[in-house]
Amino acid sequence: MSRNGRVARLTALLVADVLSSRERIDVDAARLAGHVRRARRIRAEIEALGPFWVKVGQVLATRPDVVSDTVLRELAHLHDAVHVDPFRLFEPVLKEELGPRWRGEFKDIDTDAPMGSASLAQVYRVVLPDGRTGVLKVQRPGTRQRVYADMAALRRAARIAGRAVPRIDSVLDVEATLQSVFDCMEPELDFTAEAAHMRQGQRMARDFRRIHVPDVHLATPRVLLQSLAEGESLRRADLSGVPEKERRKIGRDLLAFMYRGYFVERMFHADPHPGNVFVHPEHGATLIDWGMVGRVDRNLGSLGVMALTSLAQNDARGLVSAWTEMGRATPWADLAGFQEDMTRLVPKVTSATLEELNFGVTLTSVLRCAAQRGIRTSPMIGMLGKSVANIEGSVRCVAPELSALEIFEDVLGDVLVELARDVMSKEQVARRALELMVAGNSTVDQLRTVLRDLANRDLTVRVGLLPGHGMGKDGNGILARRVAPVLAAGLAVWGVRRIAGAASGRMTSCP
């Protein structure tokens, strides 16, 4: 089958999964078996399409608001079957990026046994001219062109899926969600961007004694030379000889470092799984592979702090408010139902440790409930959820007794201080002052227009209902939620009329 044919079939399978995701299949063995078969076909198609699609599938595995639980479980087993290519295939890349005398950059290269073979690059141990050991990452030939072609194909598939399920697309905004994933992945195609992320990560790590980021020795779009991380990855590390107190400190610093990225720096490592976290008993933890990062804006970061604070303080109402503001409620949203969902969920999370509760799964549960209740979530939340789930898995390898929320409460003071500094910076103060000036001028102009219309008896207030906006069975309750604002507006107009009438009386009366 052609590549386009596979993409079309995968799209059809995913749309079918979305359309059937609300069915009760747990009581129907035949229907359940059908869902399992479809989930396996989805996984098989993704793996057949190659590494880029596997990465997208791994993101989908953290999005219960997009795919069914059956597909979620299947995607958790996605395997990126990457073969090791001979070094001679990478030599042209090194020559193009570093010049014909590229071998002079190294004293030795271990070309026989690569340190790693990833979907987009291959990694080798090298010795630098000064004797230091380094890591050389070389992009696979033709990678950029293939990935951009896959991105274009996935965008087309997303548009088709959006037209097939418009009501669901109104909640998920499939194209925007995909774009956020692409934005996070594109630096993997340009190692100079990854190097910039590493340097920013180093600046972020200065305040954490046990957190490190490799040094960048050299970077071009397709070649990256960096220092060697100390220790072993958490997938292979034996921590039995590390004292419990030190393990807890490493785990705490990992979480605190990531919280700083999410809420203060607003740039975070999007893939901090155990394979990308190296641990050394004396040097702490080193985060590698900064190709996939996420970025959030100031408003989303602040709302994220409010959401986690509400979780930590067992405040379901506060969580609902912050989560809804991070996205938007659709016209058919059930906010009361979402409140009930969170009232049941939040108390289970507040004091649980990573050993007792999967915090990443909790965030994905909030995603699922929000989607089912008609609340569109910010596209970047999916990448945040993936990052949180990954760092939680890494910390669980080091110190499972830690509580992600308790660590958040510990560092909340520092986070708030940094946010306050940001708000009070010269740039932000100038911006707020400018906004007040513009708003003041606009308000004066608008008030002048209203008073002129009142004086000329030209002001008209129209009250009516749009179809489907009533209180009863013909509507969806929108008016019921807006009665208070409408009444307030009416009282304001009445007050303005009284003031204008009194002013008019004084102006026309004779002494």
TrEMBL record:
Q: Which UniProt keywords apply?
A: Kinase, Transferase
Q: Indicate the segments forming the ABC1 atypical kinase-like domain, all copies.
A: 78-320
Q: Which domain of life is it from?
A: Bacteria
Q: Which GO terms describe its molecular function?
A: kinase activity
Question: Record keywords: Transferase included?
Answer: yes
SUPFAM superfamilies documented for this protein: Protein kinase-like (PK-like)
* PANTHER family on file: CHAPERONE-ACTIVITY OF BC1 COMPLEX CABC1 -RELATED, PROTEIN ACTIVITY OF BC1 COMPLEX KINASE 7, CHLOROPLASTIC
Family assignment from sequence similarity: Belongs to the protein kinase superfamily. ADCK protein kinase family.
Q: What is this protein called?
A: AarF/ABC1/UbiB kinase family protein
Q: Which organism is it from?
A: Streptomyces coryli
